Each structure stands twice: as C-alpha cells, then as structure tokens.
C-alpha cells in the first residue's frame, strides 16, 4: 500500500508541474540569445529542470533533418542554434537560415541564401531590435559577405548595407590581394547597435589584413577598425623588425569574440602571423599576434593587451573564446577573463587591467636552428593551472602500448620518420622531424569552455593529437610545413594515437584557487577491444553548464552526447548518435515549460569523422 501511494503521489506532482509549466510564458532567462548565451560567453544556463538525478530519463523530443531533398552532397556544420522567446534559429549548412518552433521543430520560416551560398559554419548573432527596426539575425558567407535577416519575417533586412548584405572584402582589407581568401568562419559579436567581425585568412605571409571591424547593425556602415598589426606610431609597431609589418597577413580573429556589456569592453583573441611556422622575416615578439586585446567596444580604442605567445612559429592561435567570469580570491571578487591558445595553457586575467590573477613566468625555451629564424628566448607560462594538454613526447617512455600491434606500428613510424623527442615550444627544424605536442590542431580548440558560476569551475575539453612536422622553403619563396603536418597516429579513420592515453580529457579548473578540481578521460575508441577502449578521443566543440549542476558536451569523434555532474565530473548520461557532433550544444525552455537541450550533429571537421546528412537533435525529459 505505501508503494502505491508513493507512485500516485509522484504522478500527481508530475501532472501538476506539467500544468503549471504549460501556462508559463518564456522569459529571457529561458533563452539562448548568443553563441555563448550571455555576452561574456560563459555558456551557463539558469535552467534547473534537468538535473543529475533525472538526466538518465532524457530522450529525443524531436529531430530536424538538415539535408533537403536533392542536395548533391553532405555538408558539415559546427553551428549552435539560438533561441529567443521559444523560437529556435538555425544556420543550416545547406544554405538556409531557419526559424523553428522550439517545442515541435515545425518550420516557421526559411531564408535561402543567394547564389548557392552557405552561412558561416559556427553560428549566428542576434540583435534584439531598437523599437524602430525589427530584431535581426547576422551571419557571414564564404565569399566575404555579412548578411542580416529579419528575425520575425525571415526576409532580408534591406536597410542593412546593400539590400541586406555588406561586403567585408573592402579595398582597405584586401590591400590589392583580390585573389586571396577572406571570409568569416565564426559568429559575429553584437554590442548595443554594433556588430563586430573578425576574418579567416590564408597562411601566405603577404595578403589581406586581419583587422577587427565594427559595423552599424541597422545600416551596415563601418564604425571602427582595429588594426591587428600596428601601423607606424601605434602601440606594438616596434615589436616587429623594420619593414616586416607591410601587408603582413595572419594575426586575425577567426574564432569567437566576447564583450563585457556593462563596462563596454570587447575582447579580441588574435592568432598567429603568416607564415605560421616560420618567422625569419618578422623578428620580434610580433604584437598583436598571440594576444588577447581589450578595446572600447563603442570606439575600437585600444585599452590593453596580454601576449600569450611571443613570435609564434607553432601556429598557437588564441583559438578559444575569451570567457568572462568572476574570480573570488583572498576575499575579493575580481572581474576576470579566461583565455587559452592551442598550447593549452590557461591564463586567467583581470579583465579591466589585463594583469594575470595567478603568476605568469617567462620560461626559457629552445632556440631555433632554421636559417634566418630567431625564436624568442622565453615564453609566458602560468604557474597555475598546469597545462591542460600534453606538452612533450619521449619515445623511450611515452609510446602507446594499447595493443601489441599498435605499439609495433608506432615504433616503426618513429623509426621510419626518424622522429626526435620534443618538449614544450620545441622549434621545428629543416632537416629532421619531431612529434610535436600539442599538434597542429592544438590542445583546446575553437569551442573553448563553459563556466559554472556556483562552483567557480571553468570546464573545458582538450585533446592530444600530435603532429609530425619540419619546415622547408616553398616554391613561392616563403617557409612552411614540409609535407603536412603529418598525423601521429595509426589509420586516418581509427586514429589510434602513438602516445600513451589519455588522448582526450575533460577538465574542471577551480578559478578561485587555480587548481584542477577534476579531470576525466573524455571519449572512447570503439575499434579497440572493450577492456582498453577508455582512451579519450579527439574533440571539436565545447561544453555548456546549467544551474542544476550538469555539463553537457558532445564534441568527440565517437558520436556520443554526454552529460557530466559539474561538481565531480561523473558521467551521468550518454546518448549514441548516428554522427559525431563537432559543435557546442545549448539549452532553453520552450513555450510548453519544458527544458530542452539541442545539438547539431553532422560529423566532419579537421579530425575527419564521417560526414552525413546531419540533423538537429533536441532532447527533453518525458
């Protein structure tokens, strides 16, 4: 009898909850209006309906197939949808921007991009309107157009630029290199009535500018420009050898930017100069490459910078979004920004001053033997936390032994390629190859981390994909990677790394003391015997966290979508998908009162997981 009463009471409570939620209207806290949810990019939702206790009941609520009938080939995407007032906005890789009902997935409207174009691969920006103009969705295209669509009607916002499009390939940016690539791969950044854009460039030393620009989101008119490579008389110009700044390419923001909306400070994460493996033609520390730069978001005026990599010859871009948080240290609440490069060192800075909150030391690193090269003698390394990915490889101790066949292959690879050992910031050479860690893809990737404000945990995934590299002089006259970089693993499909596992890890860093709170091997290798599958896997895409104490992440090439207990790192839910999701999820509350979690799964990305038609997967409790 008590057992029956308990079940009846549970059902009644559930029904009452459903009735109450059904009458609720979505509020801003229920939404996901930016790539990182809030302007500072914390990717932290206040929703609490899905918890560590009930997440095992999470099921597919609805699924939206991305590929339309008749499409010639599959298209990969790394996009994160947005949700505003119960409407889900999707950048479909098959050339559409779509509005879907957040509860049912039913299409509300669809905008087809002109000329068979597709939207940039990492998502949209949303501008809420100003009372005169309707809300807008802002995105870019591979041919260098910045476009605006009316979020209510799904039609081009014709007052923006030329009938809804602004040409990013302006003469000031292209600098006479009209044949070179210039586009955007990531979502733009919105601040008040401005939309800020970076750019994706090629790796040839001379070419288009990597300047960051801001445009009026209503008219498309240019408001300000921040030069990535300083001009004569500007701060940082003297960090380049005389003449080496002229038409210098690279030093661009190809990833995601964020903004302190209250203080009006935008944070720009700049990548490496071109060419990205050789700096003999650009002696010096080379600002603002490898730097986080803070500017006045309204004017673009320089405020401060912190360089994470001096004279970059490893392609250690600032690839992760700068994430804004509050650090509680010694009784003080410090407004902070967390930033990383591909080197996997996490720097936590005061976001007002740019000063490190935890000590950073200039550590001596090896010199270069490449003709004309002058590697910078030291590199900044934080005392806390430790690096979040492998920094070295020693064949005698670090070779993988997962299976006898695996070990034998890797021993032969090292012998045949005549690989020599490496340490942090080992320079490439002209006459021999190294197994470099982190490899060309980096430790962390563009997805970056999330921040659990209750715990004070910065949660981020990294992987250890080594690269076999050396440099050579190209026929065009510049230096670059020789034949590669090659991969340091067995089999392009299976990717069995030649160093000891883990090959992928999920970390939680307590930002209030700089220590690793927990770390978990992240991902499984299905092709290995069951007893040794827990190796960790390569991952592209990042996590989100919720106020209920959950962290959701897909990212790995093993096609899993997972939930972890944020406080402990315990894996509490796993869903096997048809394709890997190399994107960042998001969560929202629908008009029916339910909390939903959504992820785009298409496969693809540079880790080459199989690509398929792809779908938007949306989950909820029964």
Structure overview:
- This protein is mainly beta and 622 residues long.
- A 5-stranded mixed β-sheet has the order 1-37-38-39-40, with no helix packed on it.
- Strand 35 (504-510) and strand 36 form a beta hairpin.
- The radius of gyration is 24 Å and the shape is globular.
- It starts with a helix and ends with a strand.
Task: Give a brief description.
The chain is mainly β.
**Radius of gyration, Cα only, in angstroms?**
24 Å
Give start-end ranges of low-pLDDT stretches. Answer: 1-25
Largest sheet: 5 strands, mixed
Helix content: under 10%
> By helix and strand content, what is the structural category?
mainly beta
Summarize the SSE layout with pairings:
Blueprint lengths: L1 H21 L21 E2 L13 E7 L16 E3 L2 E6 L3 E6 L5 E6 L12 E3 L8 E5 L4 E6 L14 E3 L3 H4 L7 E2 L5 E3 L2 E4 L2 E2 L10 E5 L5 E5 L31 E3 L4 E5 L21 E6 L5 E6 L15 E7 L2 E9 L5 E5 L9 E5 L13 E5 L12 H4 L5 H14 L16 E3 L13 E3 L4 E7 L3 E3 L1 E3 L5 E3 L4 E2 L1 E2 L5 E2 L6 E7 L4 E7 L22 E3 L3 E4 L6 E6 L5 E6 L9 E4 L5 E7 L13 E6 L2
Parallel strand pairs: 1-37
Antiparallel strand pairs: 2-43, 3-4, 4-5, 5-6, 7-8, 8-9, 9-10, 11-14, 12-13, 13-15, 15-16, 17-18, 18-19, 19-20, 21-22, 22-23, 24-25, 26-29, 27-28, 28-35, 29-32, 30-31, 33-34, 35-36, 37-38, 38-39, 39-40, 41-42, 42-43
Core attributes:
622 residues; mainly beta; 5-stranded mixed β-sheet; 4-stranded antiparallel β-sheet; 43 strands; 7% helix; disordered N terminus
């Amino acid at each position: 009898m008590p057992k029956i009463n308990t079940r009846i009471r549970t059902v009644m409570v559930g029904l009452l909850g459903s009735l109450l939620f059904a009458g609720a209207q979505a509020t801003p806290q229920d939404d996901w209006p930016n790539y990182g949810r809030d302007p500072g990019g914390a990717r932290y939702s206040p929703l609490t309906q899905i918890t560590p206790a009930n997440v095992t009941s999470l099921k597919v609520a609805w699924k939206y197939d991305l590929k339309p009938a008749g499409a010639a080939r599959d298209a990969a995407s790394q996009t994160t949808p947005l949700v505003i007032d119960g409407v889900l906005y999707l950048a479909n890789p098959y050339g559409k921007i779509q509005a879907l009902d957040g509860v049912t997935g039913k299409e509300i409207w669809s905008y087809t991009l002109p000329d068979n174009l597709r939207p940039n691969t990492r998502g949209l920006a949303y501008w809420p309107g100003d009372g005169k103009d309707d809300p807008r969705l802002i995105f870019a295209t591979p041919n260098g157009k910045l476009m605006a669509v009316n979020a209510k009607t799904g039609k081009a916002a014709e007052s923006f630029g030329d009938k809804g499009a602004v040409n990013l390939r302006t003469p000031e940016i292209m600098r006479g290199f009209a044949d070179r690539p210039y586009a955007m791969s990531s979502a733009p950044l919105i601040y008040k009535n401005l939309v800020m854009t970076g750019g994706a460039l090629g790796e040839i030393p001379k070419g288009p500018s990597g300047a960051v620009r801001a445009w009026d989101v209503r008219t498309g008119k240019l408001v300000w420009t921040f030069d990535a490579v300083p001009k004569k008389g500007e701060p940082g110009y003297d960090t380049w050898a005389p003449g080496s700044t002229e038409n210098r390419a690279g030093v661009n923001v190809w990833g995601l930017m964020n903004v302190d909306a209250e203080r009006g400070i935008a944070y720009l994460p700049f990548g490496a100069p071109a060419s990205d493996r050789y700096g003999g033609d650009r002696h010096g520390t080379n600002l603002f490459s490898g730097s986080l730069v803070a500017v006045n978001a309204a004017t673009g005026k320089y405020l401060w910078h912190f360089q994470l990599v001096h004279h970059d010859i490893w392609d250690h871009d600032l690839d992760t979004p700068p994430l804004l948080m509050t650090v509680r240290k010694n009784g003080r609440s410090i407004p902070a920004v967390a930033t990383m490069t591909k080197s996997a060192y996490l720097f936590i800075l005061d976001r007002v001053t740019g000063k490190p909150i935890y000590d950073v030391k200039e550590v001596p690193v090896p010199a270069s033997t490449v003709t004309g090269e002058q590697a910078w003698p030291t590199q900044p390394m934080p005392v806390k936390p430790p690096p979040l990915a492998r920094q070295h490889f020693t064949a005698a101790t670090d070779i993988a032994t997962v299976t006898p066949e695996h070990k034998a292959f890797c021993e032969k690879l090292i012998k045949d390629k005549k690989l020599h050992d490496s340490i942090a910031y080992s320079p490439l050479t002209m006459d021999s190859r190294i197994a470099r860690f982190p490899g060309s893809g980096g430790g962390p990737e563009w997805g970056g981390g999330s921040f659990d404000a209750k715990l004070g945990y910065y949660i981020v995934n990294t992987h250890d994909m080594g690269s076999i590299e050396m440099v050579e002089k190209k026929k065009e006259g510049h230096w670059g990677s020789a034949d590669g970089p090659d991969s340091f693993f067995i089999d392009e499909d299976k990717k069995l790394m030649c160093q000891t596992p883990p090959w992928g890890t999920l970390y939680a860093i307590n930002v209030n003391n700089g220590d690793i709170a927990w770390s978990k091997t992240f991902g499984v290798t299905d092709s290995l015997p069951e007893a040794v599958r827990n190796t960790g896997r390569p991952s592209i895409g990042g996590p989100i966290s919720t106020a209920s104490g959950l962290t959701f992440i897909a990212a790995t090439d093993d096609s899993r979508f997972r939930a972890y207990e944020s406080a402990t790192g315990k894996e509490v839910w796993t869903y096997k998908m048809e394709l890997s999701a190399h994107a960042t999820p998001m969560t929202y509350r629908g008009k029916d009162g339910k909390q939903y979690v959504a992820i785009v799964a298409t496969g693809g990305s540079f880790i080459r997981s199989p690509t398929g038609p792809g779908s938007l997967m949306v989950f909820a409790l029964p």
